[in-house]
Design a protein that fits this description.
Length: 331
């Protein structure tokens, strides 16, 4: 096997996050599920935007956020995702390339417009997300660079993008390419909402041995396994994937690999400002250690440090020097 060109190549939604502080009352008034994610159409997106206070536009997307964290730590990364040939598409492409990530997927002409996620952040830092998938749901399998996928140590797939049919076909093709090249496949379950729609697909991928590294939080773990107890959920999955990583917000995180369980406490933080991207950056920290052959406990610690940095400010992309933070807190 040739040396990998990339540490991680990811396929995910190419989304621009539109974020604004909001009261709990506004979230309730708009009929939103606090702390959840729902899909909206373009008209709903426009209505929600008009109900927002002053907002910030920040390039996001779950897998893209993970790559931004990895790149900030010094990893070599590439992203595959679909934008439209419009202003938000240009913003997304500029931002992801500006942090050192290769992004070569051609922009899509015509409607719909580039995806956006309208995020209402309540005073406790909880985020309520409303996603218009737009152009991102039309990522074709033809957009895949098989050489790049086969040349990455890990292919990282975003569960959110499993919902639309065209990207789902693309991700299945990417899994086949990566496994044919002897590379690892990592998958993040993304949200209980996605599992409610595609849980059978995800369970089949896992049962067929197509997923090497699985990321989830405790809510997603329960949704996938049907086990209310966190430990029972871990037990149900730990022998089906080589590496299982489950996060529990302020209760820390767990990794099981080769029958051995490791746990890490959440990294202390003065104030939670915005939880957007916490799981994405946890995955970034973990994967950074994993591709370097570090032990699971150290990988978990990197994840906790990266997640703590993200929730200390608005937005899902790192603002502090992650390399320096890792050197200070992990070594």
């Amino acid at each position: 096997m040739t040396s990998p060109r990339y540490d991680v190549i990811a396929i995910g939604n190419a989304i621009v996050d539109v974020m604004a502080p909001a009261s709990d009352e506004l979230v309730e008034e708009l009929g939103l599920t606090r702390g959840g994610m729902q899909l909206v159409d373009e008209a709903q997106a426009a209505d929600l935007y008009s109900a927002m206070g002053p907002a910030k536009e920040i390039s996001g997307g779950s897998a893209a956020n993970t790559l931004a964290g990895l790149s900030a730590m010094g990893a070599q990364c590439a992203f595959v995702g679909q934008v439209a040939d419009d202003q938000l598409g240009n913003v997304f492409a500029h931002d992801i390339r500006a942090v050192g990530i290769d992004f070569d997927t051609p922009s899509r002409e015509g409607e719909p417009s580039t995806a956006r996620c309208l995020i209402f952040v309540t005073p406790d830092g909880q985020r309520t997300m409303n996603t218009f998938l737009g152009a991102s749901q039309f990522l074709p399998a033809e957009a895949l660079d098989e050489e790049a996928i086969g040349g990455a140590q890990i292919l990282y797939l975003e569960g959110y993008l499993w919902d639309p049919e065209e990207p789902r076909r693309a991700m299945r093709a990417a899994i086949e390419t990566a496994r044919g090249a002897g590379r690892k496949v990592a998958f993040t379950l993304s949200d209980a909402f996605v599992i409610s729609r595609h849980g059978d697909d995800f369970r089949a991928l896992i049962d067929d041995g197509l997923i090497d590294i699985l990321f989830c939080n405790e809510v997603e773990l329960a949704a996938l396994t049907g086990e209310e107890s966190f430990d029972d959920g871990i037990a149900a999955l730990q022998d089906k994937v080589s590496v299982l990583v489950a996060t529990r917000s302020e209760k820390g995180a767990t990794c099981v690999t080769g029958g051995t369980r490791s746990d890490v406490a959440a990294e202390p933080i003065d104030k939670v400002v915005d939880t957007t991207g916490a799981g994405d950056l946890f995955a970034a920290g973990f994967l950074y250690g994993h591709v370097r052959g570090e032990d699971p406990a150290k990988c978990l610690k990197r994840g906790a440090v990266a997640a703590a940095e993200i929730i200390s400010h608005y937005g899902p992309r790192p603002e502090a020097d992650l390399k320096a933070l890792m050197a200070e807190k992990v070594g």
